[in-house]
Protein 1
Amino acid sequence: MTTSDPVLRPSRATPLLPEAGAAGTPLTVVIAVLAFMASIALAGYFMVSRAVHDWTGDLSGTITVQIKGATGADIERDATRAFEVLQATDGIAGVSRLSREDTEALLEPWLGTDNLGPEIPIPMLITAEVTPERRGDLDILRQTLASRAPGASLDDHSLWNDRLVGAARRGQAVAFVVFSMVMGASAAVIIFATRAGLAANREIVEVMHLVGATNKFIADEVQRRYLTLGLRGGGIGALLAAVILFLSASFNREQQGLFLPNLSADPLMLFWLILVPILLCGVASITARLTVMRVLGEQM
């Protein structure tokens, strides 16, 4: 008999432990759903981090001066003086003064159109870019504005920044907890599926032991299968999440608002979703191996 005889060729087309129950297609679907949830949680973590970083960066580089007054003449006088003070201050650039028409346009969502008559003294806004050095010392500028333009008040957006950063950190913590819980649920599902698979194939496992198969060999076979299932299900779930996030990002670019950060996904962030099937492969294979070794150890 030659070495080319098909009888002597090892065949691995059929696994030693056939797929049964939770170890087949249903488990792939469950892993895909868990991968989808983990991908959304991971994407949410990065989306919140990037959006808040961009928005707080924009706010920290600008200041706003609001001018109030009893009459339109008082507002116009103080606005002119505040504008001159800002232009003459070192570390202040890009001073911009909103006209009454621009201010009315900002108030239209709340007050409607043509509801502000000329006799109503609408506060005026002046925006300016500020350097980090000047931003660290705005007390002198506030005092100068108070003396030259009593109706002017300076806002450096620090309170809003602090609230936004605090809310973002809480959102990131929630996303991380959800991601960790999904990974823990994945491990629990794999433990149940592995035990169910060993129970369904108990006779095969006993025969393998009779012919000399060790617990390590059986664990290797189970680990290899769950590695494949984790990669398959994790890839499907992560891909579905990437598609949904991409479509959501396209929609958000069209519907981007003026008062909220842009919570959208970019291609670089979607690249991190590759971590999800990789982590699920690791969780599935390692959990399955440890479960097999423990169950077989208890039976021996």
Note: Residues 194 and 216 are 15 Å apart (CA to CA).
Protein 2
Amino acid sequence: MPSPETYAEIAPMRRDEPLSQWTTLRIGGNAEMFFEPHRPEKLADLLTALEKDDVPWRMLGAGANTLPPDGGVAGAIIHTGNMRRIFRDGDGLRAWAGATLPSLVHTAHGVGLAGFESLVGVPGHVGGAIAMNAGSADWGIWDEVYNVVLWMPGEREGLKMEEFTPEQIGPKYRDGNLNGAVVLEVHFHLEPQPPKVIKDRQDDILQRKNKSQPVSISSAGCAYKNPPGDSAGRLVEAAGMKGFQVGGAQISELHANFVLNRGGATAADVRSLIAQVEERVESESGIRLERELVIWPEPL
């Protein structure tokens, strides 16, 4: 592997960065190299260089559905936090991968564009939201996408950035179907509406979330995808696992699809917790829950 300083010429880098500072669960060991590119083309250049040199890498947005390992991560972690620009573009908005979802919701409301109300109160970055098709039970962020610019893994020499429509990508429920590609920029097509109408809808959604979700405690959001025609939270609660705790990790007593860090939780605590939840739910209902929480493997 070339010297890390070689990559630092492309994007700012820090060594041994604690990942617990960058995830909403506040869990994770140190990253060997931690990069924060400032522009989409720099992100593409960095990914291309790392791939060329066979350096392992992972993307990290707001860390809202991510569980890094206690033992840290070798190679490169690429954080999109410096890529926050949002632009007005015709009847929509164009956003870089690191734009936060709260800023996206705020900007859309401010210019009278509807479509992002379901994201109110949701942490995360645009890139991660596109990768997982973040949203509500009956809506996903891809519903508002006009096109997306992706960095492509090296399947075609020389072609690393390409524009795609939703029809070409085929996103699914809680799955952007990116197959290893990385979001650089997204163009959203939205519906013009009076800002007051948009704000009233946001306030109603936020009020309902605040009543039903543990918004004041460190969590990773929903741990599981909802099975067809059912609710993961209902299944976990019906299996008697609401409030179940391992070490500092707990299933929320308010909403059973949320895993909380009650203080001092480790990745090992969370792994043990969700493994027991999944086993109990499958035993009680016959349904194997599918994780929405992305768990990075422990180092070998």
Note: Helices lie at 4-8, 40-52, 101-110, 126-132, 166-169, 195-212, 232-238, 267-285.
Protein 3
Amino acid sequence: MPHIPVLLEEVIKILDPSRGEFFIDATAGRGGHTEKILERIGENGKILAIDWDEDNTSFLKKKFVDYPNVLVEHANYTDTPEILRQKKLPRADGLLLDLGFSSNQLAESGRGFSFLKDEPLLMTYDQNQTPVKDLIRKMSETELAEALRDFGEEKFAKQIARAVRGAKKPIETTGELARIVKNAVPKNYERGHRRGGASRLNPATRTFQALRIYANSELGNLEKLLNNLTGILKSGGRAAIISFHSLEDRIVKNYFKAMEKEAKLKILTKKPVGPTFLEVKNNPRSRSAKLRAAVFVQTKVRN
């Protein structure tokens, strides 16, 4: 399944890449956004493409093998300041952070991101991280319930945590976890009013979201990057961040507001930018995407 970059036109319009500029795609995935930015900055510009998933970085290196001005790095996006120092790169004209994951990670990775398949319960972007199947064995029922509530906003967190910890054998696959969750929640869980009475939300959705966020320290990583933005972007540099759930969006919104009060940036999106009806129709996974952007007007001088 080809990966379709989310909010592509909106991102390019807001970042407004120009010839010769330096951009960072800190979650490059399969390079859809990277490719479009490259068209705008030309051969005299430069792009630093970062991804935590080794499969993605291998793909990107092949995709951009003929473009010496595209530097691909296998790293967590929180390592961006260190990469700039090591590679002796300047602060950037623009930064893109797309907090979704690639279609290939759902369809091809075999790492348990989707509850629609029966795969090993890993859910980690980097293969050196502790997989979810091991994490849930170590977590107490209380710790697990807190994670489901805090990172998944799951109202049946206690019931699910009790069922997971009470499983007769260690949970090894996504299918096993999804079945346990389904049996732990009410039969009418999140039932919507669509034609035919179709369920609005699979009972496993929030649990899988919470465990993925927990395993990859996603919210902590986002906060770390935001706190380092002034060392990544030059004065006048633009940051565009695409989030996919309310927890991420709230962090970005609050950070931008606080920085604007300190006169360190100007918010470019008073309300988050979402996908058009046509984009959602062509790419249903884009429906929850929210884009927020800001331009920096004051930055610290890096040593």
Note: The CA atoms of residues 238 and 295 lie 4 Å apart.
